[in-house]
């Protein structure tokens, strides 16, 4: 059993910054990936950024240079710092813990990020 608790998000003007955090608890195995996905209305869920327990990172092209993902293995927590936000970044952001194949892939409840123009 794994639980993911997200915090952060909210409303910000274009050009502003927000931070998200996600803490995992329960049966945590390594290696794993923790990351953030987002889903805007009428669109499919897409990867924003993810980080491996070894420290490797991946970013969507649309957020490179603006978003930074970091992790704390001791706390099983992942952070996403979002700078220079755009209205196109508006979405529900979901935390994900991927422990396949040893365990499953788990999702947080989602947190809304709204960027006003």
* Alpha-carbon Rg, integer: 14 Å
Residue runs with pLDDT of under 50 for 5 or more positions: none
Q: What average pLDDT do the residues reach?
A: 96
**Helices and strands: which structural class?**
mainly beta
> Rough shape?
globular
Number of helices: 0
Termini, distance in Å? 40 Å
Which percent range fits the helix content?
under 10%
Q: Give the amount of beta strand, in percent.
A: over 45%
According to DSSP, the number of beta strands is: 11
Topology order in helix (H) and strand (E) letters: EEEEEEEEEEE
Largest sheet: 7 strands, mixed
Assembly state (oligomeric): single chain
Describe the structure.
- The chain has 117 residues and is an all-beta fold.
- The chain has strands at 2-8, 10-13, 18-26, 33-39, 46-52, 57-59, 67-72, 77-82, 91-98, 105-107, 111-116.
- The strands form two sheets. Strands 2, 4, 5, 6, 9, 10 and 11 form a seven-stranded mixed β-sheet that branches.
- It is globular, with a radius of gyration of 14 Å.
- The model has no long low-confidence stretch (mean pLDDT 96).
What labels describe this entry?
single chain; globular; four-stranded antiparallel β-sheet; seven-stranded mixed β-sheet; 117 residues
How is this structure best summarized?
The chain is mostly beta strands and 117 residues long. The protein has strands at residues 2-8, 10-13, 18-26, 33-39, 46-52, 57-59, 67-72, 77-82, 91-98, 105-107, 111-116. The protein is globular.
List the helices and strands and how they pair.
Elements: E1 2-8, E2 10-13, E3 18-26, E4 33-39, E5 46-52, E6 57-59, E7 67-72, E8 77-82, E9 91-98, E10 105-107, E11 111-116
Parallel strand pairs: 2-11
Antiparallel strand pairs: 1-3, 3-8, 4-5, 4-9, 5-6, 7-8, 9-10, 9-11
